[in-house]
Amino acid sequence: MSRLRRLVACERGYTLIELLQVMVILGVVMTGLGVVFVQASNAELDMNRRFQAQQEARVAVDKMRREIHCAKAITPAGNATAVTVTIPSQCPSSGGSEIDVVYDTLEVGSGRFQLRRAGVRIADYVRIGNVFTYTAPSSTRLGTLRVDLPINIQPPGSGSNWNLVADIVLRNTARG
User: Fold this and answer.
1) What residues contact 63, with CB distance under 8 A and at least 6 apart?
2) According to the model, what pLDDT value does residue 176 have?
3) Which of 103, 99, 98, 66 shows the shortest CA–CA distance to 84?
């Protein structure tokens, strides 16, 4: 029994000050790691949202290109927030009869527009309303529609826009 008492008396532990110092150091390190992980998670979320908006714009312009290449007329000429595309009956998207399809932009927030086809959203987070510029056919060239989509998921004035510009030629227009 006396031997056991001597062993217990000889054991030394950590003082309260030493434990508090270790806890403060660990708290500082864990707080720093937590902040880094939260910032990384927010950056990934922001990057994914930007990528989705850009991809949506690419797909929208690709669909427009396929349909407008087949179109025979667009109104109005010049810079506009909406254009009406006349699609002849031989085009796959016409359904066998000549149709008019309206592409337009709708403001859904302060400086935030949606690109729509026949009232259905096909792209979001567009930063300007006048995205269409139509050049009527001339004696030297076919009709051309320029689509200029500045995309930014951030509020207006923060960050830079990602710009998607496409010149789409109407193959069925006649040189005048």
Assistant:
1) 117, 122
2) 63
3) 103
